[in-house]
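Exercise 7. Given the components listed, write out the predicted structure of the assembled complex. Treat all entries as one system.
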Amino acid sequence: MPRQVDHADRRRIVAEAVCELADEHGLEGVTLRDVAARAQVSMGAVQRCFRTKEEMLVFALGHIGERIGSRVRARLVRSPAQSAATALGHAATEVALLREEHRAEARVWLAFVAQAAVSEALAGTLKASYAALEESFAGLVAEALEDPARTVPVDPRREARTLLALADGLTAHVLIGHLTPRAAQDVLDAHLTALFTD
Amino acid sequence: MPRQVDHADRRRIVAEAVCELADEHGLEGVTLRDVAARAQVSMGAVQRCFRTKEEMLVFALGHIGERIGSRVRARLVRSPAQSAATALGHAATEVALLREEHRAEARVWLAFVAQAAVSEALAGTLKASYAALEESFAGLVAEALEDPARTVPVDPRREARTLLALADGLTAHVLIGHLTPRAAQDVLDAHLTALFTD
DNA sequence: ACAGTTCCGATGCGCTCGTATCGGAACGTG
DNA sequence: CACGTTCCGATACGAGCGCATCGGAACTGT
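Answer.
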């Protein structure tokens, strides 16, 4: 067996470059040449890792989805003593990518979501990510609201979907400058408070 | 004065073509040639209406924003006798573009939102549309919740922002296939019900 | 009818894109 | 130390892009 290369690792490096460029110029500003340059490899190397550009984009989407998902999961288990409600608030904030240092990820994610509306391959990857998030959220909502003294019954799945959609919508509105991150956080907090005080 | 052409009208026709193509192949699938062909005019005519492609896209965004906005406004005044709460529900459904026949508009809108995250020109137009919607919604929320018997005070502006973000998030989730239109409508209805029964 | 102005369809240019190709560098193996 | 395999950098290619150009069609006012 002659010269071998860690393909998995290179794919990750390339995916990072894709995300950086998508953050700066949008998804359509991502070209193979620029990606290769940013990743400090040759175009040939990129082509060896991914047969086509679409394959590269799909991998990059999965990569960033994995990163966000694992950060959310980390938030959920960091402090086992916290209430489910608190955990849910943290996780939702994480999903909404409101913190300044995650603005880039938010832009990339939004670009992928828009593209997924017309690309079956991207849509599949995205749906998997969202399904996993919805599951996590639904579990947390159920746990946080299992108080038998509640006057109004709540559908955990529906509340999870609400939270997820709200987080995504807030992310978009922050990105285009309609809301400040602070205002978005305020909206999110108010929604959660209302959810847990009914 | 020699031969004259209704430029405003042609711009509208071209904008329609832009939206149709953006719906089918995403915003980056929109080329001047395809737009001209779809609008049944020559490329030269398109170039006469819009100096650059970006100018064309900005106009198209404004055009579709105007269409959606006026539809929302129509919903708000159609039946003056309806309660503010009902009007708000209708308007929110309209903004979320959940009805099948508006799916195309939703895809176009999402494409523009994503692009606006990296394009100042588009972001400006979008912000104006959202600001107007938020204003309308905030007014309706205030009207619907002016019941002095309410136990918990509500910030109309914040609720308007919540509603707007939720609607946008739901739109995106429907487009990528994570939610069915029915499920999205269900989420929206539940949110409004909770808002008006607290 | 003619002159003057506006408009636009056709065409070309320069560029960038994604992809295909291939010769040689790199390296484990016998 | 060659040999064989794997890898990749450089380059070529055809397609498609946005944009510029321009000659003549179309139409108005005289």
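Discussion: Residues 1-5, 41-45, 47-48 of chain A lie near DNA strand D (CB under 10 Å from a C1'). Chain A touches chain B through 50 residues (CB under 8 Å).
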